[in-house]
């Protein structure tokens, strides 16, 4: 699969910190309840920490009590790539950035009480956050 943003693993490793590289490029998972964006509640936009592509709006974030930031939908279905993942002996759906192919987390059909019923369970380290009006303007 080719992406709009493609770099060598050496380039990714040089640009990302060790934890970001492990999550974004090697599909690791940050420890629950440790991410900086877990309790973020300001209005704004969440983007891919690797390439800056906009992924989620703050209005779709909800408290799922799972230990990671959760959203019920992406900014656009084309913003994320969903891939079957059976790596841990169970079937899950991996979420990757559709712009650069970086691992973001997983989506589960247990977002009870949300408009979509989905829970995009994302690693904080895989996202950046832009607050307020500036974020709203770039999201348009």
Automatic annotation (TrEMBL):
It holds the Pfam family SelR. Signal peptide: none annotated. Keywords: Metal-binding, Oxidoreductase, Zinc. InterPro entries: Met_Sox_Rdtase_MsrB, Met_Sox_Rdtase_MsrB_dom, Mss4-like_sf. GO terms for cellular component: cytoplasm. It is an enzyme of class 1 (oxidoreductase). It comes from the Bacteria. GO terms for molecular function: metal ion binding; peptide-methionine (R)-S-oxide reductase activity. It catalyses: L-methionyl-[protein] + [thioredoxin]-disulfide + H2O = L-methionyl-(R)-S-oxide-[protein] + [thioredoxin]-dithiol. GO terms for biological process: protein repair; response to oxidative stress. Its cofactor is Zn(2+). Residues 9-132 form the MsrB domain. Its EC number is 1.8.4.12. NCBIfam families: peptide-methionine (R)-S-oxide reductase MsrB. This is peptide-methionine (R)-S-oxide reductase. It comes from Frigoribacterium faeni. The lineage of its organism: Bacteria, Bacillati, Actinomycetota, Actinomycetes, Micrococcales.
């Amino acid at each position: 699969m080719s992406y709009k943003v493609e770099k060598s693993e050496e380039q990714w490793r040089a640009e990302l910190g060790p934890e970001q590289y492990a999550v974004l490029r090697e599909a690791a998972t940050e420890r629950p309840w440790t991410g900086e964006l877990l309790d973020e509640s300001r209005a704004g936009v969440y983007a891919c920490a690797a390439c800056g592509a906009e992924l989620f709006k703050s209005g779709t974030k909800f408290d799922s009590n799972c230990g990671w930031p959760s959203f019920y939908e992406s900014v656009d279905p084309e913003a994320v790539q969903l891939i079957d993942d059976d790596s841990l002996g169970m079937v899950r759906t991996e979420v990757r950035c559709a712009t650069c192919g970086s691992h973001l987390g997983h989506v589960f059909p247990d977002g009870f009480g949300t408009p979509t019923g989905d829970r995009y369970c994302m690693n904080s380290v895989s996202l950046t956050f832009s607050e307020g009006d500036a974020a709203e303007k770039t999201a348009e």
